[in-house]
Each structure stands twice: as structure tokens, then as C-alpha cells.
């Protein structure tokens, strides 16, 4: 089974804290340096340190992030023996992935095949934006909203894409609570995510989550990274 090693989280058996692919002040004034210092420098760092403690001396020791996530779940349900390690691992993977979803001067519109698929599966780029923002805004409590490439049909209760047909190889929107990401459901290749835990936006936006989501989509998203992940997903599927 091919693991989804998309551009974003790189396998690192030592689980070192990986910096964002830009200086901590590079997203200002859209996302403040203070937010990055707390979110990456404190929260993300703590997740990495916790992961090291959870896997050392266990059968998960030496496994990649993706392997730990997949081995810890059974059809989307976490296996009790791996609960703490899996939660810590997904928080590390999700944050590595999240930082690479953004770039200074991001936002705007995608192009090429990515735009074609968005228009095919959502009706238009504007409809996609509305649905993605709604998914992120309505994720109850802490969690994530995702754009993913679905390689095979697998029913997920919180899938948010009513306009997409049921065939394989479609773009879909997903919401996930807490640390969960689409890797646990099988057949989904994450392309884009937004972190809607409060610590991701509270210093800049307080309780105004919808404002944070709009700014993220309009001024931060790296569509180049999303397009690259789409190409990697298709290559992984073709080689499976």
C-alpha cells in the first residue's frame, strides 16, 4: 500500500521540529510573527517532543509519520493501544503539512489541471471557495478542513462535497476533529488544509474564525504547493 508522502511532511525517523518554509515574519501583516512564534515555536514543538516520548521503545519506534498514522487506525477508528502516539503523530504531520500550504503573497486563483478539476467537481472556483470556507467555519471545536483527491470510494460521514459525483478520482472536501487527518480513511490524498484550532488564529483574529478563514484563502494559500501535491497523488495512485 502506498503511503501519502505528499509535498509537505517529509519522513523523518528522528521526528525533529521542521521549520516553516519561510521566515516567521514572512506572512505579515496577514499572519503575525507572534502567531508563528507561538503556533510553530511552542505548540508544534510540544507535539514533536510528545511524539518522541510516545513512540520510543514501542513497535512504532523507527516508523515514519505516515506509517504510524496508518498502523494506528482501523477504518478511521483509532486503536486504543496507539491512541496517544497516533494523536501526537498526526498533530506533527498536520502542522508540517499546514505550514507548506501557505506562502508570502499567496492566495489568488489556481491554474492548470488543478483549476480544471476544481471547476469540474465543484462547479466553479467561487463555489469551491464558498464550500471550503463553510467546511472550515462549521468544524465544531478544534480540527481541520481539507481539500483532498479521492482515489477510491470510501464513505466518510463528514465529507462535505454534495456536488461531486460518486466516481473515483475526484476532489472532495473533508472536515476532521482534533488531530485526525484523511490518511486514516484510506484512498484520500490531502492537497490543502487549514488549521481551525483556536491557537492558529486567536492572536490575530480573536474569536473571528470566518475572518481568519477568508484571509487564509484570499492571501496565504500556496496554489503551487497544492498543484504539486495533486501531481504527486496521481503518480502514487498510478504506481500503486
Automatic annotation (TrEMBL):
Keywords: Chloroplast, Iron, Metal-binding, Oxidoreductase, Plastid
Residues in Manganese/iron superoxide dismutase N-terminal domain copies: 14-103
Entry similarity comment: Belongs to the iron/manganese superoxide dismutase family.
GO molecular function, one term: metal ion binding
GO biological process, one term: response to light stimulus
Superkingdom classification of source: Eukaryota
Encoding gene (name): SODB
Gene Ontology CC: one annotated term: chloroplast nucleoid
Organism from which the protein derives: Mucuna pruriens
Catalyzed chemical reaction(s): 2 superoxide + 2 H(+) = H2O2 + O2
Enzyme Commission no: 1.15.1.1
Cofactor: Fe cation
Chief place of localization: plastid
Domain Manganese/iron superoxide dismutase C-terminal as annotated: residue spans: 110-229
Stated name of the protein: Superoxide dismutase
UniProt-annotated location(s): Plastid, Chloroplast
Function per UniProt: Destroys radicals which are normally produced within the cells and which are toxic to biological systems.
